[in-house]
Design goal:
- This protein is an alpha/beta fold.
- The protein has 13 helices and 17 strands.
- It folds into 2 domains: 138 residues, Alpha-Beta Complex (Aspartate Aminotransferase, domain 1); 239 residues, Aspartate Aminotransferase, domain 2 (3-Layer(aba) Sandwich).
- Strands 4-12-11-10-7-5-6 form a 7-stranded mixed sheet, sandwiched between helices. The protein has a 4-stranded mixed sheet with strand order 1-2-3-15.
- A hairpin with a 4-residue loop joins strand 2 and strand 3.
- The two termini are 41 Å apart.
Length: 384
Amino acid sequence: MTDYKALTQQYEIDVYPRRDVVLVKGKGARLWDDQGNEYIDMAAGISVANIGHSNSKIVEALSKQAATLITCPNTFYNDTKAVFLEKLFTIVPKNLTKAFLTNSGTEAVEAAIKFARLNTKKTKFIAAMKGFHGRTMGALSATYKTEYREGFGPLVPGFSFVPFNNFEKLAAAVDDDTAGIILEPIQGEGGINIGQKEYFQKVRQLCDEKGIMLIIDEIQTGFCRTGKMFAIENLGIEADMMTLAKSIAGGFPMGALLCSDKIQIEKSKHGSTFGGNPLACAAGIAAIEFMLENKLWEEAELKGKYFKDKLEKYSLSKVRDIRVVGLMIGIELKDKSQPIIVELLSKGIISLPAGTTVLRLLPPLVISYEDLDTVIEKLAGILQ
C-alpha cells in the first residue's frame, strides 16, 4: 500500500502542523481517511466546504466546463466568467458594483491594499489586533499574529494595529495619511470575536469623514456562514471594498475583491493569470445556485442556534464562553484547545483551533441535525 504520509514528508516543504490522518474522500459533512475511518467534519476546510464536500452541482459544473474550456487569459472575454459575475452581483451588497477575481483570499487582500493606496494617494492602514488577512507580504502586514510575521521583515510599511471593537483606540490611530481600515466582521483565526454593530457604524462614519477606504474581510464569514449571505448584513453598514474567497466556489480555489464606485483602476495597474478562470467561475455559479436554492443562510442560523442551545444544557466545567453566529462557533476553554482537538479527532470529529484556547467549529452548512447531536454528545463528554 502506498505510504502517502512518507511521500508528502519527502517532497513537500514542511510548513504545516500535520494531523496524523490521510484524507482521501468527502461527501456532505463526512470525510474518510485511507484506512476507511469516517469523520464528521466540523471544519469544512476552514469554512471552504460550506455547501458540503463533493457537492454534486459542483462536480457536474466542473466536469462540463473542463470538457469545454479550462483557461482563458483575462485579455479576452469569457462566457462563463460573465455569467458568474452576473450571478455574484445578485447576492452581494448593492453598493458593491465591480469585482476583481483572484485565486485566493490573500490575493484579494493584496488587491485591496493596492487599490486603496492608488485611489486615496495615501499609504497607511489600520488593522485589528487578533485579525487575520493572509500570508502574502501585504496581507501578512495586515495580520496581527507575531508568529506569522517573524522572520519576514521588513514587511510592507505603514500598518498599525488597534484593539478590536475599541473605537476610541482606532480613531486615535488615524492620521492624514491613513488610506484604509481593514476589519473582519467576526475574527475567525483570532478566536471567533464578534464585531459590535455600533463599533462598525462609528468606523464607517469616521472613514466617510476622513476619506478612508473601509475594507471588510468576509473571506471566512461570507456565503451564508453567519446566518446571512454576508456578515456585513448584521452590521448595517456598507464597505468600500469587500474581500471574498474560501466557499465562493464550493471548494474550488477562488477569491474576489468587490469594490464600490469609489474605486477606480486604470488598465494594466493590476492583474492575475488564473484569476476568474472558466473552471473556477463554473464552480462559483454552481455554488451560488446551491446556496440560493437551499437557503443555506437559514440553515446556518437554525443549526447554529440548535447547537448552542443544546450544548449549553450541559454543565461544561472546562468552558469559559460559547460564541455562536450562524454556524461559526467558538468555544473558549479554560485551558489550551489543542488537547481537545486531538481527543475529538480520536472520536471521529475534525475541529480547529482559533488562537490558543478557543475551539473553532465551522461545519458544512448542509450538516444534518443527527451529526450535530453526535458532535454535541461527544463534546459534552470531553468538556464536562
